[in-house]
Amino acid sequence: MKSKILILSTIAIFLLLFTNCKKKDKNPEPEPAPATPSPLATLSTLTISSITETTAIGGGNISSEGTSAITAVGVCWDTNTSPTTLKPHTNNGAGTGTYTSSITGLLPNTTYYVRAYATNGSGTVYGNEVSFKTKSIWTKANVTSGNTIFVNSTAIIGSDIFCPVSQSSVTSVIKTSSDNGATWSQVGTTINEGDISIFSNGTELFSGMLNGIYKSTNNSVTWTNSSSGLPTASITPKIKTFTKSGSSIFAGGNIGVFRSTDNGSSWIDANNGLGVSSVIELFSAGSIVFAGTSNDCYRSADNGTSWNTINTGLPLTNKNIHNFCSNGNTILLVAGNLNTLYLSNDNGNTWSIANNSIGILVNAVVSYGNNFYISTFSGVYVSEDNGLTWQNISQGLANNEIKKLLVRGNMLIGFLNGNATYDTYNYPL
Predict the structure, then answer these.
(1) To which CATH superfamily is domain 139-428 assigned?
(2) Average model confidence (pLDDT) across the chain
């Protein structure tokens, strides 16, 4: 009997606990209290665009005005981080949504920091910070009078720039500058040739002349003939252009292309597949070597052992291919009687016109960082999108026609096209 009573009591307690649990489960958890709205506006800063030497376009996006109406929106900027409305700023009205702001009164070649702002009855709040750098302005480096200048090549060793200067149709000198063209001095004696090319492998100089290739191991003070292996009979080996790929140096001219694998001590014929013997310019991009002639563009993927034409998209006749340049996967070249700029994104398999947006003759092409720079008969242009669009950056030039461009460190150097003056201009990058 006692056992039955104990069992019944246990069941009763279990049912009571179960019932209480079920009752508790039927009571839902209380909902969290609603968040208190922010008294300040919510906003973000737009990316800066249309950057020039002294202006830019910015703006912001107001997604919420807070607990009171917005009375002012705009952007503020400064050369220091975290600018506020105590610094230069715009006032672009009120309300929510996206707005644009004109940023003016800037200094060239200067980094600025920008934040959007919004003001309501509770105060002023700032968006995320963005930064940008204004374009530079060209400044004249020097003027040396008295010579007719024909600048067709330059070379760099360390801090020194070397440039052949034509004094007449039959004589030249090598001039050098260690201060980005501010001052120039002659190195060595007069060379009995009016048009020579120059190239550096990083430590030594090579020069192409009418009677062969010469090499200097003392920064152009003296030159020694380095033409072993070049043809000597019936053809004067006029060398116009050089390039380097890996451990090989290539020389091109009216004898086609020759290659040296012993730093110019000897040269071997590398003309297999070239349809003509006269080469205007050589260029290397990684392990690929390009050759431009008056009739065709060539490419070699085997260190000059063989060459193939890559003319798709280039002019049908009078190609006159010169001034190669590359930046990542994009290759530019200048071709045709009108010095038109062409680009390729497939290693030269196909080409398309790259200067439709400016429609002017191109003299030279260089690259720095992610940008291309070209000199034309009406100024210097920069492309920040691999040659698709171009922006004029000629402010500060006395004469828009820059004949030659050179990048040294973070400085773009322009050689002005003049008949009796030797003008160089600098553009900080």
Answers:
(1) YVTN repeat-like/Quinoprotein amine dehydrogenase (2.130.10.10)
(2) 87
